[in-house]
Design brief:
Elements lengths: L1 H47 L14 E2 L5 E4 L4 E6 L11 H18 L3 E5 L7 H4 L4 H15 L3 E4 L13 H8 L22 E6 L5 E7 L10 H5 L8 H17 L7 E4 L5 H12 L8 E5 L18 H8 L2 E6 L8 E4 L2 E5 L19 E7 L5 E7 L22
Amino acid sequence: MANKVKTKKNIGKKLLKILIVILLIIAVLSASCAVVNIVLARSHYEYAYSFAPVEYEEQLVPEIGEDGYYTFVTDGDFKVVQLTDIHIGSGFLSSKKDNMAMNAVAAMLSAEKPDLVTVTGDIAYPIPFQSGTINNKTSAVLFADLMEQLGVYWAPVFGNHDTESFSYYTREQIGEIYSSEEYPHCLFQPGPEDVHGVGNYVINVKNTLGQITQSIFMIDSNDYTSKSLKSTITWDYDCIHADQVEWYKNTVDALTEENYGIMPNSIAFFHIPLIEMREAWYAYRDNGYQDTEDIQFIYGKCGEKEGVVLCSEYNQGFFDAVLEKGSTKGIFVGHDHLNNFSIIYKGVQMTYSNSVDYLAYFGISKLGSQRGCTVITLKPDGTYEYTPENYYQEKYQAKEAKEEVTMQEYEH
């Protein structure tokens, strides 16, 4: 009996030793990865600052208006470039692809010379098995450094990957970085504290008479319905909440009053598409890819697997508010990296931008049809024009040679 007890004690000691060894190995590997990531981060920052600033003949400079929002003043066209899903990992596994993403962004902005860049989420991609880190701050700082070096005014909203439940930093903390004095070209504003999301704000374009020719709504479409890992794994995406909808409606009313009683036209940017975008696409598809009374297809492809639109299953009324107010004529989103179509539903145009992503989808760095941006020209009369632009056009001259890609074809 004593021998059995002694044997059990020995087994217990051996198991404890094995556990300690395993924990030590994990600690050493974690520390090693952290050191490597710090070294790589420095090289990435150096790379970001190696790009030449965008050359403007005369760059428009925004000022804070009496309403608290940034305002640009011009009597001419106003160019917006939408970027989405940059997906900078900032870890040892994503180093090469991070540089490719920065190279693409710099090439497109240097050629387009936009008055404003809107970034519709997922700047960061802190997924450890693809990037090698869960530190989302490094990616945010790296991209902000790149944009500051380029000298381009830009306005971001958050996506679902920017602040994962397992990431180090929250939306509030990353928002403080974007709105800090260190990045004067970043026009991010955190928005009302009593409203869901971080980064619900407006940028106005006015003419020299003081009239708003276009209001640009930047809205946080949130991330997941809960902060649990399960919600992340099951892609349980959140939506624009009811209090954000009220903020939107109240802001339209306030802008109307500010604009001498005339409701300004507006466009909206956020990350996760509305459920109405899925409804419109599926109805168009089920009708044999033919327009209906409520649906007019404009351009593009639905390239996600099985032609899906990945949106929230919840709906708290943002699209209905858009119809009710009549101000917002266009909605621009990201999120689905292989979808780049534009469709009009009940008079409201909804558009996926081309994405930048080299990292999030396995093999996407070798595909090219979806990579690029959307160029939106706001007209002095309150209308706008927009075109999808592919990165692999000759007009985008990259600092580093562009990678070889397959320009894939989609069935629809």
